[in-house]
Amino acid sequence: MERVLKFLTRRGNVFTILTLIGVAVGLGLGIGLRNSNGEAWTKRDAMYLRLPGDLFLRCLSGIMLPLIISSLVSATGSLDLSVSKKIGSRALVYYLSTSAIAAILGSAMVHFISPGTRSDDQNSEDCGGEGGSTIDTILDLLRNVFPPNIIAATHQNTRTEVTQNASIPFEDRDVNVRTVEGTNMLGLIVFSLVLGITLAELKEVGAPLLAVFSATGSAMLRITTLIIWAGPLAVCFLISGSLVEQGEVSEVFSNLSWYTGVMVGAYLLHGFVVLPILFFLLTRTLPFQFIRNISQAIFTAFGTASSSATLPITLKCLEENHKMDTRLTRFLIPIGATVNMDGAAIGVPLRVIYIAQLCGRSLSFGELVSITLTSLAASVGLAGIPGVAMVVTMTILGSMGLPVSKIAFVLPVDWLQDRVGTVVNVVGDAFGAGIIGHLSKADLKKIDDDNLTSTIVEDQKEVEEKSPSAELVN
Q: Which residues are listed as membrane-spanning (predicted)?
């Protein structure tokens, strides 16, 4: 009994338990309110119910940019350049490998189980579509890596729009590359990394500016600590607000039971089987304690459906619960929250192949490979906000000649897919930080030893300069 009370009253456990209660109450409240009058709520009423949660997300979003930029600059600037390259290379290999595994897993499960062929909604009528080009998505990714205005990048990004006119060949249609509202996170990350590396090379000259970024990052984390105590209540209202908007929940899951089962199964298999096994193989440590340490971030990710909004809590879990080096967490997690989107890599091919099955279209091996690779490429740099994977799905549907309008078939469970996918994103980032932290222990120890040696030498010089013998020589 004493051990149970000690567990329940520990600061980190209290918040995790409160968040779990918030998730459970939100699910119960949403289903209960939805069934109270037998029909879905209006969008306005649902908006009122979500308001506390929306305010919470706005607070977290408000500190997200200064936290990410300051953390990246200070972490990169405090690391030796050779060590930064090593850690960055390890991170790149991990991100690409796990995202590739996720995309292949999602494509394979939906292809072999074929939930679309088992659905009552299967209909090959009106399944023609106007093809597009996924090259525009990749080109936009490259353009956003190099923003022309770093200030504008905080609220604008680049997007290519092609004039839709079936009478004109695709190659001859007007192409409009324009700026749209939305943070260009990739461009900001590249700028922050370059600035941090430059400040590290400048050494003493860059130290004052580096100290400013370090202090800013610490201040943002302190503010985050205050904000996240509203998390359990916010999560409750966000989940209940999403549920009351849905149609009859039992009917939705009945019609989409096969798709929902494959979708949830793929996410859980990747996030809580594949990644933990990878963690165990590379660190020789059982993953259960690690999962427990990041449980607070997992529940928050499910409630907010935003890996960006969960980022400060992921940092807090890794630094306070798992005792990870802040130089690593503040370098890896902001990057991972932008470029490591395992949830999207699974979810996008799931939607596309399922819709193709509904249309009665048999996809060739080449088309399956194309969908998988495009999903993998498009998942890199996705904004960590709710619903963004749906935009990529629509782009790929167009490129495959499938009707974008058929996306409506998966919309009834999109609220669930968004949340479970976000959990996988956050878990993937956290496991990546844990693995890379383990592999980088020797490199970080070498930096600490070199810094200690340098400090001792400088102290000895100061003592010698102040000694009486030195004064006599002078």
A: 12-35, 55-79, 91-113, 223-244, 256-282, 331-356, 376-397
